[in-house]
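Chapter summary example: a protein plus SN-glycerol-3-phosphate.
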Amino acid sequence: MKFFIDTANLEQIEEANNLGILDGVTTNPSLMAKEGITGGEAVNAHYEKICAIVDGDVSAEVISTDYVGMMKEAETLAEIAPNIVVKIPMIKEGVKAIKTLYDRGIRTNCTLVFSAGQAILAAKAGATYLSPFIGRIDDTNWDGIQLIREIAEIYAIQLYETQILAASIRSPRHIVESALAGADVVTCPLKSILGLFNHPLTDIGLEKFLADYKKG
Ligand code: G3P
């Protein structure tokens, strides 16, 4: 399973990249706004900075909701760097754009996915990645991980090549469960990635090893 970081914060991207286990970055307009980055030129310049830090795929989201607007934005975004993947919302016009971009060899990440039916549509259109929002499904008292399981089974049966990118991750446990459910990629806040390191027995064990070494 690939690890992406879900942020537009350059320091956090660098910190995750320095761990040596980072495969890519996902962003969205809300994450950009959180860093104070708004407006087309500023956003595109920020993508350039992110692409200079990581070698892996960087998802850059369109803000148009019509086919023509999405295509125009997608072409501009794809020119920023070879590792840009254009993030397109799961709406009718978005699915049309994903299909045309697939035909033109531009990779896409279909975002705002909340059902297996939507996952089938995105795969049929040729999306490179599919982003089901696990945490937001859990917030509505449904089971986000169950959706990953269901999509993984459908994609395996139907031999769809779209990669399942578990998004809206809220905890280290979500990462473990996404891996178990068959996600190809997980995109997480830095806090959830770092949370995977934590175990009190590791800390206690290391402390004892170092204390014993000093005794000898
Ligand atoms: O990649 C999509 C993700 O950023 C959404 O996360 O926490 O806003 O539900 P969240």
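Key point: Residues 116 and 147 are 7 Å apart (CA to CA).
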